[in-house]
Amino acid sequence: MNFKAYININFIFIFLFSILSSQAFAVEDEIEFNSNINQLSAKSLKDKGKVIDLLIESSNPNVEKVLQSLLEGKVFFVKKDKTIVLVKKNKNEFFAKDIITGKSLGIFSKRQIKKVTINNSIRKKIKSGLSILNLQNSDDSVRLNAVKNSYNNIDSNLYKKIQDLVRFEKNEKIRNAMFVLLDIYHLDSIDKHIKIQAIKNLSNNLEPVVKNKLFQIKNNEKNLEIKIEVEKALSAIETKTSFFKTLETIFFGISFGSVLILAAIGLAITFGVMGVINMAHGELIMLGAYTTYVVQMLMPNFIEASLFFAIPAAFLVSGLFGIIIQTGIIRHLHGRPLETLLATFGVSLVLQQLVRTVFSPLNRSVETPNWMSGALEINGILSLTWNRLYIIFFCLVVFTILMMILKKTALGLQVRAVSQDRNMAKVMGVRSNRVDAMTFGLGSGIAGIAGVALSQLTNVGPNLGQSYIIDSFMVVVFGGVGNLWGTLISGFGLGIINKFMEPWAGAVLAKVFILIFIFLFIQKKPKGLFPQKGRSAGD
Q: Most buried one in 251, 266, 425, 475, CB count within 10 A?
């Protein structure tokens, strides 16, 4: 046998030996892990705590599942052989599964099994263990959540683990969160200098747990130097909190204003061009919301995409109803504003009753897609909900498209001509009746789109539109009748003012104050912030 063949044979032997050894070790680890799990049936809480420590230290991939099941109270043991099982209770029956494989083990009675009980100390240890496991996850979001979830449950083991991991953590956001966790732990230090430094480090942190900890120190600490530093830190936190609370209020005001704009923008077109006070405008919004509900019922397996179908559907449904109302009623009442107002009010009642007959008087819930759920967390105080962010964006998109239609299309040119001087437009060959119908249909269609947005914020019901009709008129009148830019600015402005007033005045009284303000404002400027120009406007 030559030297090369000898080396090859040895290499193969070593390779096979390493595979067999690793398999043997894996089997041994699995046996040890299962043995540790079965020790959870011990009566002593101290023994259970030791078992939890062994489980956390193991590298078995099923550790997290076992610990999470313990926290949720789903872990039982069979009295006969002390086997640990995962149990789902249904009335007086207990459906047991193997805690590792998930294999069904049959149905047990209450006498045959017993729940693995844990106390607060063990519960805290489990939470700490889960955090330690998640801290080693490759997913940045999992590691970040693990750190933040540990703010209230940090112990010495977790502290030591964080100290080791923070040196190797590359994600800056996670590193900062780890340093916050370490500083929170140092707040309980007996060393005055360490405690003071931790207080200084946390003086700009907005996490609720930090504020609570500092308040506890302020109330219980006897050292004057530490108390002074705590008061400084709390003052800085309160200043930042106030700033971000203001930003949050502005955000909610803008989101509320976006809804007002979507609801009012169609009204601004019809009111500006035709001079018609459409009291059924709110019901056209309601029809758009119900259209969204119907689309979701027709697409139960495609909820994520349903809104993309609901938007054009709502536009068509509400727009068609708008054209029917204009051609069937409003056209025949031209020049009689009071009769038009009463007629459209009657139409609103008819539409409400129609919806009650078809869908029942009960409110309907429209499911929010996952991509609109949750929030964008800026810090511990400020979180921007995705559904409101999307509605703000949606409002601006609709506004932009509408402006392009009015500025760049033949219909837009005719609409502007009729709104500025109807008689002259007729002389120039513009078919004013057709323009009125198309304008009313366009405004009604946008009202339907507003209903789609509202369905993501509130329940859908027959009275949905009535909640926004007065607000819509206020936005239109305040901004300037027929002026879309005025509608946009007044919508955002009134939305923000309303949200700033609500905390001290209440929702209803805030609207009353805004109504009084607009009434006084139009006494000074009857044509609104941005009055329409043209002969029809009296200029």
A: 266
